[in-house]
What we know:
Layout: E1 3-6, E2 9-12, H1 26-42, E3 48-52, E4 55-58, E5 80-83, E6 87-92, E7 101-108, E8 121-125, E9 133-142, E10 148-158, E11 181-188, E12 217-224, E13 238-245, H2 250-253, H3 267-275, E14 278-286, E15 292-294, E16 302-304, E17 309-313, E18 332-334, E19 339-344, E20 350-354, H4 372-380, E21 432-435, E22 445-447, E23 459-460, E24 468-474, E25 482-490, H5 501-509, E26 512-519, E27 524-529, H6 552-557, H7 559-566, E28 574-579, E29 586-590, E30 593-594, E31 611-612, E32 621-623, E33 627-633, E34 642-650, E35 675-680, E36 694-698, E37 710-714, E38 723-730, E39 736-743, E40 752-757, E41 763-769, E42 775-781, E43 814-820
Parallel strand pairs: 5-10, 17-22
Antiparallel strand pairs: 1-2, 3-4, 3-6, 6-8, 7-9, 9-10, 11-43, 12-13, 13-14, 14-15, 14-16, 17-18, 19-20, 20-21, 21-22, 23-24, 24-25, 25-26, 26-27, 27-34, 28-29, 29-33, 30-32, 31-32, 33-34, 35-36, 36-37, 37-40, 38-39, 41-42, 42-43
Amino acid sequence: MTELTAHGFAYTDGDVDTNTSSNPSLNAMIQQRYSRRATLRSGAAAASAAVFGGAILAGCDSANADGDFFPVIVSVGSSGATSSGRVVTLTGNATDAGTITSSWTQISGPTVTLTGASSATATFIAPAVSGPTNLQFEYRATDNAGQTSVGTTTVAISPAALGFTSLAKNKNDIVTVPAGYTVTVLTRLGDPIASGAPAYKNDGTDTDFASRIGDHGDALYWYGLSASGARDDKSSTRGLLVQNHENLNVQYLHPNGPTSTGGVRPEAEAIKEIEAHGVSVTEIVEGANRAWTYVQNSTFNRRITPNTPMVINGPVRGSAMLRTPFSSDGTAGRGTINNCANGHSGWGTNLTCEENWAGYFRRSGDDALRTPREVTGLRRYGVTSSTGSYGWSTVVAADATDTRFRRWDARATAGGTAATDWRNEPNQFGWVVEIDPYDKTKAPRKRTALGRLGHEGAWLGNLASGKKVAVYLGDDSRGEYFYKFVSDAAWNPADAQAADRLAIGDKYLDAGTLHVAKFNADGTGVWVPLVFGSVPNRPATGSDAEYVFADQADILVHPRLAGDAVGATRMDRPEWTATNPVNGDIYLTLTNNNASVRPLGGTDAANPRHYNDPKGASNQYGNPNGHILRLRENASDPAATGFVWDIYLFGADSADADSDVNLSGLTASNDFSSPDGLWFSRPTNPGGQVKPLLWIQTDDGALTDRTNNQMLVAIPGTVGDGGSVTITNRGSGGATATQTTRRGAPATDATLKRFLVGPVGCEITGVDSTPDGRALFVGIQHPGEDGTAAAPDSSWPATQATGTAPAGTRPRSSVVVITKNDGGVVGL
């Protein structure tokens, strides 16, 4: 017997002419099938499509199996296109008289994760690509007889692009984001993060901030958790949000603002203010319909305040300069304060940075009781206040043994010593503090090898096996320096997932060399090591005598003095740093400067501008709008002693600035002032790959007559993509001076857009995302900072939903989560 198969129909040449029924002949059946297929192809059964933002894009036909008399039919059309980071929907529509099972598989191109692959509709995020790239997918449909038909479609992917319309500047009392995005308020000042803690009334009567979210939320970072509660760096649905709490809107913390009697602060008010500082660790989760919430009773939740026990680590541990009545051997301390920018390690820990700590101490009138060296050091760091911020040292504690308030009085006493008074307490602050967010039993460690500064941030360079670890450090004050720490130990990738994370911190952050930057006019620079024996004496300055360094601990307690001694470049408020995860370029925000620190004749190539940017009737001479500098280490080596640099962007008000001020060609769609927060998208999603997105946040006073503070997103180039330019600076009275600098490529609407505008009186500070880039966390700090308890000038976040709130509603610093409505990567 010979068997013939025609289009899946079995035929035999056995007995013939034995069937006398009137059923159709073979030829008639075949003709019927082809007629039916043509009808299906031309009608409503469009079988497969790739959908991008609502547009349907078809693929190519490859149906190849028919099954039986009424087979599953699959037909597809032409190909479609999108760009990296956007959502693609593949839709199959098979037709058959019986049951259909469907599935999608990828058959070529960069691998993507298909969601809903075992159905007729599947989605994926378009991957990062450096040039036009095709992805091909197969749709397979099977009928109830087990016969399968297959169709394919091709999706063309283009490199990432900023996928939104730039926002206009505004002064609204809400967080504004582009169309297609949603803002959700996640955590707020005073929210309880301990089981049983009462809800926040927001009327000034709330207490126990050791169990609540603190004030002035600043830098933040996401640490992933698995379903079982273990560290999971890939998790995008459950994690810990670690946030700094820098300072206070003190007028809203009490019923009628802070009080005192005869210059003495009440204990209850002071402890509330102290505990509202520090760091919070809060579990957050994504729920149904991508709704984000925090978990009040999570066992991971934690507050770290100025009263939390700390361990001193590194070269200054045990130094006489750190001895206090609390720690007679100088190895321990209490708390962290004025936590501003941050960093994160490559081994799962958080680096929080103590910035403007000096002003909290009462210290004046005791010069005669100190050595000249001590006085020089205290003056250089600004520990000179006669009261101390908030007057905590004036509190008369109910318990005479309670030193939580007395410690803020750093005056030396007649006949006293470091063991009997608090003369050395200021030396306990100004450090980078490492925290294990996953283990609340571990005391945070102050990493003294990284130096004592007004730390704005501590950001690691890209880690590479066998290379040393570099940490970049801004010292946030006008005229201060930019630093780099280089570890003695070379990076071992096996340390990334070590169980004892703080022990890994000991390895990489306790032994190494601190450097300070010198910027040359030709676009090069050098890192000067601050090593005892090679740092000269700091010359006498003003009323300060020559400073002679005693040892390496002295240099690390006083790196500002060491920077003076080696002639480091004075910068326009060096603040946040960020590392491009692809090419390793280091970015540094230089927020602003004024004429007293940066006069007309006092510019240099790295800080090149002096001009006036009027605000109303007031003049603002100096560099009120700031700039963003970037550098690349020689040979891309984190331990390099030399680098090249340029100025990536110059802040400017496009409505006022001339071409010698608006050097980056900013327009009304992307102009900004006073860059502060800075962050690159994570390399675990398309936003942080190939050409990563750079997020820029502002802390502006110069442009706030035109707009509330804002956040922009950029696709930057590389160091050296511009060239040399000579500008004319202008001072008061018509005086001019020229300055040559290195300028990056001008901004365009394709490379820089305004993504967010905050509420009234706020600063935008703190930004991170989930690893998949589909949820962006942003800190909104001190809304309504110029109001009073009786007359708040913002009511945000209560205004977020409708734009209004009941009169007298007090504002609260908060974290918002921003998601793209179609589920794509935020910003793309």
